[in-house]
Amino acid sequence: MKVHRIIIRWSSIMKQAGLILFFLLCYLPTLSAQSAKSPAEVQAFIYVVDLREIDGAKQDFFADIVVRLRWKDPKLAGQGKHFLPADAAWNPNIQIVNRVSVQATLPEVLEVDESGNVIYRQRFIGQFSSPLNLREFPFDHQTISIILVALAKTPEEVKFVRDSAEESGIGSKLSITDWKIDSYEVKMQPFRATPGGRSLAGFVFELNLTRYFLFFLVQIIIPVGLIVAMSWIVFWLDIQETGPRVSLSVTSMLTLVAYRLLTASFLPRLPFLTRMDYFVFSSTSLVFLSLLSVVWIARSTKKKEPFAAALNLHSRWIFPVLFLFMLMFAFWF
Fold it and tell me: Is the pLDDT of residue 206 over 60?
């Protein structure tokens, strides 16, 4: 009897072990497949219709862009070609991270075909923020970006890829006149709002630009150079004519202050000096130095000091040489 009970107990244990093994063989592959489920693939296309303005003072730009996303949703297959409200089915729910004042102009709808292929189209017009490195202004190169993310969706849930049907690009004729488009690039990369925070699936459209500096050369750099040169005329005037010499130097100084206010309108309040700042500030300092020299020469002349005439003569070449060094410092080094 004891042996019989042992056999029955052992048989029961083996049945339970068999059930457990059956469960592992049948359900573990399913669980593993679910855990290894690939993210939804979304093909992204972005086209810059127009780029109107880049505002260095506000650190933003005005653009007109078209975004198209394509993906496959088997749940929507077999219903023929139809349209759905964007919130009536799954969609990446894209958001523009660096939008300032942007308007969506197309209806929020999804286009679905017989096979379950879904297309989302939208056109965005408005201002986008973009930090600019203005240290080299006005001879600077900049990169501006349009950053789009899938709201509340991680890279494990959504994978953005380049559209296989059409390459992203820019319009052949843009409204912007003071920048040259060097190149553009679409990057499929996650976005993280805070260091160590949650990553969101997203992609970035980058534009690399070079500023046309001819406007600043003609409107600011050359006129300022002429004003500085005008301040040297005092050293060719009669050393006894103190009034006209001082008047000319003061006029040059005030004109440069007005140009300094003009250049400030192109820039935000920066914690550093740009190349244009160095140029205008150095020119102003040079004109002020010539004014001090004129006053000191006039004072020394009244006292009949012998070196006053010599200083006035040497100033004719000292100040042009200082100006050349200043130009090299401002725009070369």
Answer: yes
Closest-CA residue to 107 (of 79, 87, 127): 87
Phi first, then psi: give them for residue 170, nearest 5 degrees. Answer: -130, 160
Is 73 in a helix, a strand, or coil? coil
Number of structural domains found in the chain: 3
Residue 195 and residue 169 share a domain? yes
Residues in the chain: 333
Which pTM does this prediction carry?
0.79
**Kind and range of the H or E run holding 22:** helix 2-35
Q: Quick one: 121 and 25 in the same domain? A: no
Q: Say whether pLDDT at 104 is over 70.
A: yes
pLDDT digits 0-9 by tens, 140-185: 999 999 999 999 899 999 999 999 989 999 998 999 999 999 999 9
Residue range 62-79, pLDDT digits in tens: 999 999 999 999 999 988
pLDDT of residue 70: 96
Same domain, 54 and 177: yes
The answer on 302 and 223 residing in a single domain is: yes
- Comparing CA positions, the residue from 254, 265, 260 lying closest to residue 278 is 260
Q: Which two tokens stand for residue 196?
A: 């160590």
Q: Which residues pair with 160 in a beta bridge?
A: 42
Closest CA to 136 of 275, 277, 328: 275
For the beta carbon of residue 285, count every other beta carbon within 10 angstroms.
Answer: 13
Residues 12 and 156 in one domain: no
Give the pLDDT confidence score for residue 244 in this predicted structure. Answer: 87
Residues 6 or more apart whose CB falls under 8 angstroms from that of 297 comprise 239, 308, 311, 312, 315
What does each C-alpha distance from 35 to 28, 156, 157 come to in angstroms?
Answer: 10, 11, 12
Mark whether 100 and 184 lie in a shared domain.
Answer: yes
